[in-house]
Write a structure and sequence with these properties.
Membrane topology: Multi-pass membrane protein
Main location: membrane
Helix content: 40-55%
InterPro entries: Methylamine_util_MauE (IPR009908)
Structural class: alpha+beta
Oligomer: single chain
Number of helices: 12
Distance between the termini: 65 Å
Largest sheet: 5 strands, mixed
Order of helices and strands: HHHHHHHEEHEEEHEHEHEHEE
Number of domains: 3
Strand content: 15-25%
Strand order of the largest sheet: 8-7-6-9-10
Protein name: BT_3928 family protein
Subcellular location: Membrane
Number of strands: 10
Radius of gyration: 25 Å
């Protein structure tokens, strides 16, 4: 029985690590964005790691796939199991931290707080762990429980390492591990130089952006509660509307703000926070109504690749001859926009959009998105700009 449980755990953990790793390896840039969220000052406060997020992301996902293979074939079981154990402890800490911080009142830290309160999703800074990329979204609660279950299976392997026998000889296993590692490196390099092989995002080719923002008839609506924020003994504290109306505000409390607090999450549209603005005006509908439009996506001009920026103006001129509306979309400020337009002699206009939304639309910086009346017909990395199909 012990051997059966161990072998089942071996297969389950190995396959799960391979699947999870391959999904993230398909889009390491997306996983790096998720790591940046964790490294943010509002979460782990490790901002010095943000510049290295992509390198860390690539290392983690490749190691994840290789470990899964090593476990299945029984290659170096002691090293493999210890590595799996270390990874799952780390991931469980991250997902547990993300979930449990939803209990912490605003103004208090994770490790030092005076009182617990009901779970509050508004407090959470990371709403999805990124364990399966954009292919499968897990809530912090689901992610934490998934890692706890994995931890149990890995502990079974940890205490039964002697039952993890090699399936092949030393030389074949060395070759398999080397081949898997090499293929993973190649895949990571390829998708970073082009685009993910499979697009799991809400903005994949064929998507009607306008329909993606619509709420279906009869869909569950979100429920909100009005709350007031007061500073009580130097700490910002949320006080329910009913308590305020009943004069139950602590004496000496200082009013700070009022907000609508999410109580029950309703239907969330696949596409949200998509807006095209310029000079205080909204151009979303007018751009989506265009029969032919090209968007140059650059979420942050200061982080854009020079090689890509130099290619945009040439495509802009070709697209104009074909009757396309061509605009840039960025989250950068006006001063930066003017600086980059001058540096690269760009003659198209830049419109503003939420940078997080732009990072979701595309992974290259810059990248090209082709629209036909709001429907995405093509998405291209700047390295493949010559493949843009101008009709």
């Amino acid at each position: 029985m012990k051997n059966i449980i161990t072998q089942f755990s071996r297969a389950f953990v190995g396959l799960l690590f391979i699947i999870s790793g391959l999904i993230k390896l398909n889009d390491p840039m997306g996983f790096s964005y998720k790591l940046e969220e964790y490294f943010n000052a509002n979460v782990l406060n490790m901002e010095f790691l943000i510049p290295y997020a992509l390198i860390i992301a690539c290392f983690v996902v490749i190691f994840e796939v290789v470990l899964g293979i090593m476990l299945l074939i029984g290659f170096k079981p002691k090293f493999t199991v210890w590595s799996l154990f270390a990874m799952i402890v780390f991931f469980t800490f991250l997902t547990g931290y993300t979930y449990l911080t939803g209990y912490i009142p605003k103004g208090e830290s994770f490790f030092h707080f005076s009182s617990w309160q009901s779970f509050n999703p508004n407090n959470m800074k990371v709403t999805d762990c990124g364990c399966f990329g954009d292919a499968l979204k897990l809530t912090p609660f689901e992610s934490f429980n998934k890692d706890l279950i994995l931890l149990i299976f890995i502990l079974i392997l940890f205490f039964n390492q002697k039952l993890i026998n090699p399936l092949l000889g030393k030389t074949p296993m060395n070759l398999i591990v080397f081949a898997v590692y090499s293929l993973c490196l190649f895949m990571a390099f390829y998708v970073l130089q082009h685009l993910p092989l499979v697009d799991f995002r809400a903005y994949k080719v064929g998507t009607d952006i306008r329909k993606g923002m619509e709420i279906p008839e009869g869909a569950q609506k979100s429920v909100y509660e009005m709350v007031f924020i007061y500073k009580v003994n130097g700490v910002e504290t949320e006080i329910p509307y009913d308590d305020v109306m009943a004069n139950k505000v602590p004496e000496g409390a200082e009013f700070i703000d009022r907000k609508d607090k999410l109580i029950t999450q309703g239907y969330v549209t696949p596409i949200h926070d998509f807006a095209i603005e310029k000079d205080g005006s909204d151009y979303t509908d007018s751009v989506l109504d265009e029969p032919k439009a090209i968007l140059f996506i650059t979420y942050d001009l200061k982080k854009s690749k020079k090689k890509g920026m130099k290619k945009l103006e040439e495509l802009h001129k070709k697209a104009l001859e074909k009757g396309y509306l061509v605009i840039g979309m960025t989250g950068s400020d006006t001063e930066t926009i003017e600086q980059f337009k001058s540096e690269y002699e760009l003659t198209f206009d830049y419109y503003l959009c939420d940078p997080t939304t732009l990072k979701t639309i595309e992974r290259a910086n810059p990248s090209i998105v082709v629209l036909e009346k709001g429907v995405i017909t093509q998405k291209v990395h700047f390295n493949d700009i010559d493949k843009v199909n101008l009709k």
